[in-house]
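Supplementary Methods S3. Complex input for the protoporphyrin IX containing FE-bound model.
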Amino acid sequence: MARRPPSLLRRIVNYPLDWIEERSGLIGGVRYFLFRKVPHDTNWAHTLGSATLTAFIVQALTGAILAMYYRPDPGTAYESIQKITNELTLGWLVRGMHRWGASVFIILMFLHMGRVFLYGAYKYPRELNWVIGVLLLVLGLFEGLTGYLLPYDQTGYWATVVAININGTAPILGPFLVNLLNGGADFGPETLSRFYALHMLLVPGAIFALIGLHLYLVIRLGVSSPPWSDRPAGDAMPLPPPSRDGARAGLVRPGARRRVRS
Amino acid sequence: MARVDERRQAYASYKEDVQRRGKPFYPYAMFHDTVMSVVVVAVIVALACIWYFDSNEEPGEEGAGILGPRYTEKADPGTISFIPRPDWYFFFLFYLLRIFKWPESVILATIGVPTILLILLISLPFLDRRRERRPLRRPVAVVAGVLVMISMGVLTYKGGTVREALGATAAEIDTWFQRNNLPEEARPGAEFFAETCTQCHTYLGSGSANLGAPDLSAVGATGRNVEAFIQIMREGPGAMPSFATQPEENLRAIAVFLEASKGPGGG
Ligand code: HEM
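Predicted complex, serialized as structure tokens:
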């Protein structure tokens, strides 16, 4: 029997996708990402990682908008923050989301880490991803520290002076760290520019790259199943009866339908 | 079978199990992820709204709602009648500085404990190498983790609710003069001190011990002269900020006061 030619709609949708796939292989990559198998018994606790990612994306977007209006200069920084908050259309929303998003991001990182710890998901072969996670945690906290100075109000200013001094008490590295953070021997006008560059370029760039690596490893190694999974890894178990749950949404790749169990 | 082979085999059978019984990421896991992400964004927007509509344009206390002010006063390197306070997720470190007493162990709180925690955190997967993942069968790891979480929670709470002394009152200054037998010429210095230094230093029970700052009630008994105290204020030892931007005569007045402070019964 001859195959029916694909409908016009299908051809319109598929043509650009095929065009890109032929030249980059990216569509295949996205398909792999979307349709890769995850353990059948993952649960809500497994969403904390992607929730953290969402919070980070909120920070990146609102931060980019703030950067368009903020002035990293000791004389005008405070006024530019006041203007963003009180005068700019929806400026308060962007700044408020950035400010509170930072706390949400940090809470979510801790919760996600707690989930990974509780599930023992840091064990073989995921040790490396745990280490990357700890680096992300440290960089995330450092983002909070550098961002705190930027409004250039009394709270941020004095907290930063003290935080830099505390770094200075470290043995051997102390004076070096102080110099690096201050942009000179003492807290001065350079310090604000330096914190700005760290806060909006260097540290987020590093976080971005590490998140990429983190997710690469998650996809490559697979998300671990809960430790109380009904099938302790390694034991042979008969296949579960076929289920048609997967057809419910109508979105599943046809070949996968029969094997799905939700 | 060697342990290495054992865990390799366990991982291989995990992979196989996921292939056979797993569900595709889209739409199942992705559905949960999307719902959670929407909740996260909604919470962030809600916080931003509460913060903004419950505060006003005034800086500091006057403009503050339940989520705090929009900003405090503009930074002024010349004043320090201000409590240096980090954002809440550093409160546990902040409070740690009150527990460790100056001078021997302050370094433990500033550098020691955080470094040790970080090293332990990074090396966790290399310390705990058993294959067992069920929490109830990892009592040591789980109890240790819960203890760390509780203590960080308690320290964060305490750091957030500590009593802060915003300057000592005139009545308190009077008791300093009686108990410490201070000469009248120390009066101006005592007033500057009450305004700027009691944020971190205690003095005869006034002030709050922040950042591990030592009690200064008897600092004049340590044999240092006025010039030495001025030098200390200029430099800002350890976590203490430098007061080099303050006018010379203020620093000198404070130094006179410090030098005269020999502790109750002394002098
Ligand atoms: C910027 C911050 C972070 C982002 C965006 C992020 C994102 C993710 C995502 C999306 C997953 C997939 C599974 C899940 O959601 O649970 C994951 C897994 C994982 N994360 Fe993170 N994460 C972050 C921080 C951390 C931290 C602080 C740690 C621990 C120190 C960590 C350790 C891990 C480990 C070991 C896995 C594998 C878990 C498994 O296979 O069950 N991550 N991460």
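Strands of chain A lie at 37-38. Confidence is low (pLDDT under 50) at residues 232-239, 241-262 of chain A.
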